[in-house]
Design a protein that fits this description.
Rossmann fold, 5 strands, alpha/beta, 5-stranded parallel β-sheet, 141 residues, 60% helix
């Protein structure tokens, strides 16, 4: 059974902008392409990614990159109740809380992020890993 993971905006940006953590983020998306890991994002991650890709590459190239991502990763939406749970949660960063509770609502297995504070706020029901730790500790082909 393939793991279901939510990749936060920085993971997507590391890959699409070829930032410092490009190689490990690339591995996550290669696993999505192969079907070994099901990768999900939220509309707000699309929004954040679109903003930075447009700044870096222009509107047309940003659209092309996003469309190519959406072949292998899926977008999950949040209900009103999920948003309320996120805002009322102990996670102080609202954006992180929205991602986390959306992933929880959709029964994902893990959240992938580099945000150390976000990782500390996770509940046992939905662990949060860095991409490196996920590849070392969880994903074993």
């Amino acid at each position: 059974m393939a793991f279901k993971v939510l990749a936060d905006a920085n993971i997507v940006l590391d890959f699409t902008l070829k930032r410092d953590q490009y190689e490990v983020s690339k591995k996550i998306f290669e696993l999505a392409i192969s079907g070994d890991v099901h990768v999900f994002i939220t509309p707000s991650i699309v929004h954040i990614t679109a903003y930075w890709l447009t700044k870096a590459y222009g509107k047309q190239k940003a659209k092309e990159i996003i469309l190519s991502l959406l072949v292998d990763i899926k977008v999950l939406d949040a209900t009103h109740e999920v948003v309320l749970n996120a805002v009322y949660s102990k996670i102080e960063d609202i954006e992180d809380a929205l991602q986390y509770f959306t992933a929880l609502h959709h029964n994902l297995d893990y959240v992938l992020t580099r945000d150390k504070v976000f990782k500390k706020m996770a509940m046992p029901a939905l662990p949060v890993y860095s991409p490196e730790d996920f590849l070392k500790e969880v994903y074993r082909p």
